[in-house]
Structure formats: C-alpha cells, structure tokens
Write a structure and sequence with these properties.
Number of strands: 51
Distance between the termini: 139 Å
Strand content: over 45%
Shape: flat
Structural class: mainly beta
Radius of gyration: 55 Å
Helix content: under 10%
Oligomer: single chain
Number of helices: 7
C-alpha cells in the first residue's frame, strides 16, 4: 500500500531513527489518513487507515510494512464490509464478507478467501432472496459439488418454473460456472422430486418425476416438459401415448378409476387427443356414477350434439333428480336448445308452500317435484327463457329461469297463490305483487319489495279487514320506517325492528286521542318519549313498557310542570313541581292517579314573591311542624293538623323602630270582627275557625291586582308594564308599619300564603263586590288579568298589612292541579285510569271521604274564605283610619260590604250546624 511523499507527519521521535512508535499521518495527494503504529516511515502494527473516494475504504486492524496483513475489519465505500484474514493487502483465509444492501445479491458470505476472492470448499453464502448455498467456490463463483436451498418464491437467474407447477425448493448436484448442470436431484415446494439430467435447475433429458400426489412419469423431458414417448400413472389410471412438449397427441387410451387429466369422474375413454386434450368426434365415455355419453367431445367433455343417459343431477336448494337429455352440449353440460325430463329422486309430498303467506310474511314455493322443462339450457340446467310444467301439483311457471329455478321476471301460478314479478332462485325477490285468498273469496295483496321469498324493502300490505302497512320490511317482518293503520284503533308512523315498533316513532290512539312520540323497544313504549293527551297534557321522559319509568316530566295544559322520577307509571320519591303562576315545590311526592302528583312527605314550597315554607305534606295536606320564611327574611314556626294551622310562632322579629301603634288597633279590630251569636254557632258545631292572613283567593275580591295608579313601575314584573287600573277609590297608598299577627290557616293551600305580607294596596269600592268562590271547580285554570306585582320591591318604611295581588294570584293558581280538601261527589272520577302512561293502581278519588265529609269540608273552606275577606276589609279600614292623612267619609270602605260578608258567614255557620 504505497503512500504519496507530500504528507504531514506528527508523532514521537526516537534518537537515531526516522520513525516513531505511534503516528498520525495525512497524505495530501489522496487525502488519506492513518492513525496507529508506525515503523520505517510506514504503518506497522495496529492502526486505522481511512481512504476517501469512490474506491476508498476504512480499515482497522493489523499492518505489516505498510500493507494490511493479519486480521482486520474493512468497510468499503461501495457498502461492503469484511471481517477476517488479510495477506499483502488482500482478503485471504477465513473471513466474513457482508454485501452491499443495494447492489449485491447476497447478504453475507462465510468461508475461505484467496487473493481477495471467495475460493475453496465449504463456503456458505446467504442470498437476499432467501436462498442459501453451501459448497465449493472458484473466483467468486459456485463451482463443483454443492447444495442450494432455494428461498420461497425466490427469483433465480436462468430459472423460470412452468406456470401452475411447483417451484424448486432445493438442488443437490454439480455446479459449473455458477450454474447447476449435470446429474442431480431436485426437490419441489409441493414435495415432488426429480432424479435425472438437469440444466439450470430444469429437468432436461431422461429422468423420473414423482409428484407428491403419487403421479409418476417415466420418459423424456425437455426444458421441464414431457416430450417423447412415455407412460404416466396417476392414482391407478394409466395414460399411454406420445407426448409433445407436455401434451398427449393422437389416439390415446385411458383406463382407471380416476383420470385427473380428464373429467374427474371419467373411468374410460377411447378417442382422439389433440395437444393434450381429449377432443374430437365419435368418442365413447363412461363415468363412475354409471351414466354414459355418446357423441362429440372437447377437452374430455361432451361438446356438440349428443345424448346423455341416466345422469344424476342436483338442483341446488331443490333436490336430486335423474336427467335424460337430448340436445346441444357445451363443455360437458347441456347448453343451448334442448328438452329434458327431471325425475325426482325423493319427491316432496308436503304442499304447505301452496297455502297463504303467514308470519313472517312471505311466499316460499317448493320445487322438489318431477317435471318437464322445455327451453334454453346453460351449465347443464334450465337457464334462460322457458316453461316448467309440474303435473303432479298443478303448478306452472313461464318466464326467466336460472339453474332450474324461476329467476328473473315471470309468473308462478299455484292453486291459491299467484305471484307476478321478480324471482331469485325460485323465490320472489326484487319487486312483485302477490295475491292470495282467505276463505272463499276474500283476497289479500302485497305489492312491493321482496327478498328470498319474504317481504323486504318498501312495500304495501293490504288485508281484507282494512289493516294496511306501508313502509320498510326485512325478512318478512316490518323493519325500518313505516306507517301502520289499524282502522278505528291506531296509526303509527316510525321505526320498526323485526316485526315490532322499535326506535323513534309516533303512535296515535284513535279512541283515547292520545299521541306518543318517542322511543319504542320490542313494540312497547320504552325509552325517551313524549305523550300528549286529548286534553293537551304532556308527559315527557323515560317510559318502560308503556308507562313512565325513571326520570320524567309532566306538563299540565295550564302550564304546571312536574319533574321527578316514575316507577311503573307512578311518580314516587322526591320531585319538583313548577306551578304556572311561578311557585315551585321541591320535596316528597306521591302519585295522585292524575297528571300532577300530590305533595307528600318533607318538602319546600317556594313562592313566586320570595317566601318559602318548609313542612311536611300528606297528599297535598299540610301536617306536622314546619318553618315559614317570608320574602323579607322573617321566619315563623308552624304546626298543622290535616291542613289546619294549630299555631304560628314568630322566631325572628322585625326592628321595633319600624313598628307603630297600629298593631294594637288591628288586634282590637280582629278581636271584635264577629258577634257573640256567630261565636256560639261555631262552638255548637265543635269546629275551630282560625283567622289567618288573607289567602290569594280571599284577597282577590277585596284588593286590587296591582297598585292602581302607582307611579312606581319598579314593583311590576315583566319589564314594569302597568296593567289597566281597575275601578279603585282615589285614596292614596298609606304607609303602614309591619305588624306581627299569629293567625292559623284554613287548609294546606291557604297556608302557603306569606303570613307577613309587605306591599301596597288600595281598598276596592263596595260596589265592586267580591269574586265568587266555588270549591266544586278545582280544575278550572286561573286566568291572570294583568302583570303581577311583587311586594318585595317596597321598602320596610312603606310596608302594608295586606299582601299584594301577586300572592292572591299565586295561591289561586295552585288549585287547578291540587285536589281540594273537599271534593264534589259529582266531580269525583271513577276508578278508571285517566292517563295510560301513569300507574293504574291509584285512581283519582282514592282516599277521599264520603259525601257528608265532603260537605263539611266544603262548608268549612267556604266559612274560612268569608272570614279572610272580613279580615281583609277590616284591616284595610283600620289602616285607612290610622293614616296621618285624614280620610273623608266618602273615601271610607262601604260598611254594607262588610255587613254582607258577615251575613254570608252566618248562613254558612247555620248550614254547617245543621249538617253536624
């Protein structure tokens, strides 16, 4: 390995020497570098030499007098890598050469080297195509005796297997100049073997080929093909004749149980052969199944005119038959024009296919009967246009035929069913119309899509009873979107699945007038849905088998909403009721048998104006102790018994600075609002009439719904829009200090009113009268005549004794959906269930008292209402008299109105006493 003289040298110096033990050298001419041991101005010993360029390399190993010598590793610039022995700058001895991944066809070579080339015995080379060679080498080529394992699907230069035949997997024999040649043994990927003369991995010359299937050929080969005289034995069948490049030629005789080179069922053939195929006229063929053929053949099969006798055939999905055919053949099978007789091997005597279609809807005719077919043939079976006649079962078909089946457009006529339309494999498929009779003359029809004999796709079914369905079908069952009409009963539009309503849909019940929109599962209203009743009520939420179950929402037509949980159609547990007037109840509930459940158990009633009552209810009736918090934060402890307020105890008092002497005046009026005779009447019937603050219904007749003529629009809800002022007295509002009054309530509903109202009122003229009150109409919705006022918008300095009209309207609005304590027996419903989606176990009048008790409660409620109105009138009069601004006699409340109310109370007391 020579080096240019113009080099840089850096290293150790030794006395009386021109070199050093270790050096770093750079040759400017070829830009080579060396780092390592150095002696006599040359690399000597261990070192690393790097030569850049196209023919460069990097060598790391032993050097001797400037040459690579000994053992070392060299990486060439062409991508090769060598690890092994070196001699005089050449690969020599045992080593490993790794090929270039892009340009070389081998991965690595392990074995002997000589003068830089692979040479010697027992060299092993692994190729990229997966092949492995082990044997003798000469000048980088396989030469001599060797073994080659061929990779799967490997491409070998000079070798190309015959299409359809197996690939060589190994070769053991001689190699000449890198090519297999001479005597040897070949093994193939399918297990076949060949022993004989070989050239380039091809069979060439005399030899014996044994296939893995047992086929043996003894004779001559040329380029892997049988060529010349020979005998081939295949599974006991013997072929005798002349081969020409792999094919039989001339007259041949074939005998044996199996003849793979011909029809597999052929057991005897005597006739012509052309290019390996049994082709010609006047051939005689016998088949294993016992039938025979006389006539023209092509490729060992009947072709042209001929006669087929006693051939067993199978019509797929029909049955087995014995065919006798006279006509044209193509490729071994009847094809073209001909006539055949099918004799059923196992005739089917079951004629149920002739009956009317049943569920699932469809028409499945059977064909396992002897019959005659005349028309077009293909593939050995009736195909094309033709006519079938089944005399045995009185059936005919005329139309398109495929493989013996009616297929395409046609008409099939049976004893009771007629179908015209598309067929696939003998079954209605596509579009068509079927008509069938039930009884003497009643006809049912279906027209639309079919699949495999069943209604499928879009279709219209009409039954003699008037029932109809139009929509999607699947395998004879309604499936997908559709509309079902049952006369006088129901209509449904939506999704179906396997014959049942399933998925989103709309069900209209004609008789009850109810409409359900939502999810169905297996025909039942199950899942998320919405039920609208004839009256306009709405149920939304989760349904289970037609009843509410889980989270749900009930919306009354008047706007009241219940939100909570249902089980088996009945509301239970806790829930939320949002009344149309703005009040909200949250707490325990129990099914009422009607749309809106009863308040039952602990709960919180929140008033629109800001007040809140925390108490316990039992079917809408207040019971036990509770806590009331007014809109201005004043709290009182209350106790109820069957809706009657037993006591009302103030917990938090207002600031004494805001109180005046009016409390005493009002208390005085309250103590003298009844005469002794009325007290005696009350005592006689044993009923405690408890005074209370005016309920909404009581205030409605004596207090205006809004502050008439007030310039303060800030107290008006909904943007401060002022309603038209009612006929009011011209007296201005009177600021009154807040007072504390403990007054019992008459029932659960009246007790919901704020006991400490804050607001401004005007006294209604006496001639305006009071609104009528009828406990017999609890379901009539309350109509608000104008915007409501919230008393909480007024300051404490202008507190008034009487609650604003917002309280009045709120309490009235509770009544439509809350069953009253006193039910008119004429109104009490029967035990029938009002809402199908609600539980039927609780009827609307369950737990109601008898008629006498109804009357007692009604009179008690009426009496309490009159008391509230009397109290309101007296409170308003007291407030007016105590005003700093003197009130003229013309502006005082009409005393006749108060007297009228007192007389009304006496009448109620007398009726109650007589009833008791």
């Amino acid at each position: 390995m020579g080096h240019p003289s113009d080099s840089r040298y850096r290293g150790e110096t030794r006395q009386k020497s021109c070199g050093a033990d270790h050096a770093e050298v750079f040759w400017k001419a070829n830009r080579a570098t060396y780092t390592g041991m150095w002696r006599d101005d040359r690399p000597h010993g261990k070192g690393t030499y790097v030569l850049p360029g196209e023919n460069g390399f990097t060598y790391e190993g032993n050097f001797f007098e400037g040459d690579r010598n000994g053992s070392g590793i060299c990486v060439f610039s062409d991508g090769r890598r060598y690890e092994g022995g070196w001699l005089k700058d050449n690969m020599h001895g045992m080593g490993i050469l790794f090929g270039n991944e892009e340009s070389d066809d081998f991965v690595d070579y392990t074995g002997p080297f000589a003068n830089g080339k692979r040479r010697g015995q027992d060299g092993t080379c692994r190729y990229k195509n997966g092949s492995v060679y082990k044997g003798e080498w000469l000048d980088d080529k396989r030469h001599g005796r060797g073994e080659l394992e061929v990779g799967k699907n490997a491409s070998i230069p000079g070798y190309k297997p015959i299409p359809g035949e197996s690939h060589v997997s190994s070769y053991v024999g001689t190699f000449v100049d890198d090519v297999p040649k001479g005597a040897g043994t070949l093994k193939y990927s399918d297990g076949s073997t060949y022993e004989g003369e070989i050239e380039g991995l091809h069979r060439h010359g005399k030899g014996v080929h044994r296939s893995s299937t047992g086929c043996v050929f003894k004779g001559s080969f040329e380029c892997d093909r049988r060529h010349g005289p020979g005998v081939m034995i295949i599974s006991g069948a013997e072929y005798r004749g002349e081969w020409h490049y792999g094919s039989l030629e001339g007259v041949v005789t074939i005998t044996g149980d199996k003849i793979p080179r011909a029809d597999p069922s052929l057991v005897y053939y005597c006739g012509p052969a052309v290019r390996g195929e049994l082709t010609g006229d006047n051939a005689v063929i016998e088949y294993r199944e016992g039938y025979s053929y006389r006539g023209s053949v092509r490729m060992s099969k009947p072709h042209g005119k001929g006669v087929l006798l006693k051939k067993p055939v199978t019509l797929p999905e029909i049955g087995d038959f014995i065919l006798q055919y006279d006509g044209e053949f193509v490729a071994g099978l009847p094809k073209g024009s001909g006539e055949g007789v099918f004799l059923a091997a196992n005739p089917d005597t079951d004629l149920l296919s002739e009956e009317s279609p049943l569920e699932p809807r469809g028409f499945l005719p059977k064909y396992n009967f002897s019959g005659r077919y005349k028309g077009s043939w293909t593939d050995g079976l009736p195909n094309g246009k033709g006519q079938w006649i089944w005399d045995q079962i009185d059936r005919t078909y005329c139309g398109d035929v495929l493989r013996g089946f009616p297929h395409g457009e046609g008409t099939l006529t049976c004893s009771s069913v007629s179908y015209t339309g598309s067929f696939v494999k003998g079954l209605p498929n596509g579009t068509g119309k079927a008509s069938w009779t039930v009884g003497a003359s009643v006809e049912n029809t279906y027209e639309g899509g079919w699949k495999e004999g069943y209604f499928d796709g879009e279709g219209l079914l009409k039954l003699h009873g008037g029932y109809s369905y139009k929509g999607q079908w699947s395998k004879g069952l309604v499936d997908g979107l559709g509309t079902e009409i049952v006369p006088y009963e129901r209509t449904y539009t939506g999704k179906f699945s396997q014959g049942n309503k399933h998925g989103e849909g709309k069900l209209c019940l004609i008789r009850s007038g109810e409409v359900y929109e939502g999810n169905f599962i297996s025909g039942e209203m199950t899942g998320s849905g919405k039920m609208t009743t004839r009256e306009g009520h709405i149920l939304k939420g989760e349904f289970i088998n037609g009843k509410m179950g889980g989270d749900g929402e009930a919306i009354h037509k008047n706007g009241t909403v219940f939100q909570g949980k249902y089980r088996n159609g009945a509301a239970f547990g806790t829930g939320r009721i949002l009344y149309a007037h703005g009040d909200v109840y949250e707490g325990g509930i129990v099914s009422s048998g009607d749309l809106i459940p009863h308040r039952d158990g602990p709960g919180v009633y929140m008033f629109f104006e800001g007040g809140k009552l925390e108490c316990t209810w039992k079917r809408n009736v207040l019971v036990g102790e509770g806590l009331y918090t007014s809109s201005n934060g004043i709290r009182s402890r209350r106790s109820y018994t069957e809706g009657i307020l037993d006591f009302d105890e103030l917990i938090d008092k207002v600031d004494p600075a805001t109180s005046g002497d009016l409390s005493d005046a009002v208390s005085k009026h309250l103590s003298t609002d009844t005469n002794t005779s009325e007290s005696a009447d009350i005592s006689a019937v044993g009923i405690k009439i408890c005074r209370s603050l005016p309920s909404r219904k009581a205030c409605h007749g004596n207090v205006s719904l809004a502050a008439c003529g007030s310039p303060n629009t800030g107290s008006l809800p909904f943007g401060g829009v002022k309603p038209a002022p009612p006929a009011c007295v011209e007296k201005q509002f009177v600021p009154l200090p807040q007072i504390q009054i403990q007054t019992p309530r008459r029932d659960g509903e009246a007790s919901l009113a704020d006991p400490y109202p804050i607001g401004q009122v005007k006294v209604r003229n006496a001639d305006q009268g009071s609104p009528s009150f009828s406990p017999k109409s609890p379901s009539a919705p309350f109509l608000f005549p104008g915007p409501r006022m919230s008393g909480t918008n007024f300051s404490l300095e202008r507190d008034a004794l009487v609650r604003t009209s917002a309280s009045t309207m709120r309490n009235d609005s509770l009544r439509p959906l809350s069953p009253p304590l006193c039910l008119d027996p004429r109104v009490a419903s029967s035990s029938g269930q009002r809402f199908p989606a609600l539980s039927g176990s609780v009827v609307r009048n369950s737990g109601t008292p008898d008629h006498r008790e109804h009357e007692i409660r009604r009179l008690t409620e009426s009496l309490q209402n009159v008391n509230d109105r009397i109290w309101t009138a007296k409170t308003a009069r007291s407030a007016t008299w105590s005003s700093a601004d003197p009130v003229t006699p013309e502006k005082k409340p009409d005393p006749d109105s108060l007297q009228t109310l007192q007389q009304e109370r006496r009448t109620a007391l007398q009726d109650l006493a007589s009833l008791m």
